[in-house]
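Give me structure tokens for this 158-residue protein.
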Amino acid sequence: MIRYAIFGAASLCAVVIIPAAAALPAFAVDNMETTDAPDLTSVRAKIDAKDYQGALAELRDLAEDHQQADVYNLLGFTLRKTGDFKTSLTYYTKALELQPDHKGAREYLGELYVETGNMDKAKEQLATLKQLCPSGCEELEDLQKAIDDKAATTKAAN
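Here you go.
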């Protein structure tokens, strides 16, 4: 009899609590536990096609509704590719505020520093990636290559 009472109480809780929880508003999108990340497939396709203006337009629309690290990281990347380094830095910084361990933002920020000649800051991002990827990762390899290429170019010029 007690077993049925417990089962009945649990069933009642499930019937009352689950629908009520579903009706509650979703957490803010800067909560990294959320699964409310936007679909960036179209943006990535535009970036791959080097359609940076098209990607920027779509990303700016997404940024109005989604405060999310991937959106800000791709905004930073796209702006960097169009030569707007100052605004690019702002978006990489925002991405890392939301998600400090975002490897893509670390790589791209490091590449921004390489492009602007701030090698010390680029190496700081490299050091952070080494901590995030102790066994190595693509982001670490790409930033290391950018730093090495810049060093070789600088050495050849001198």
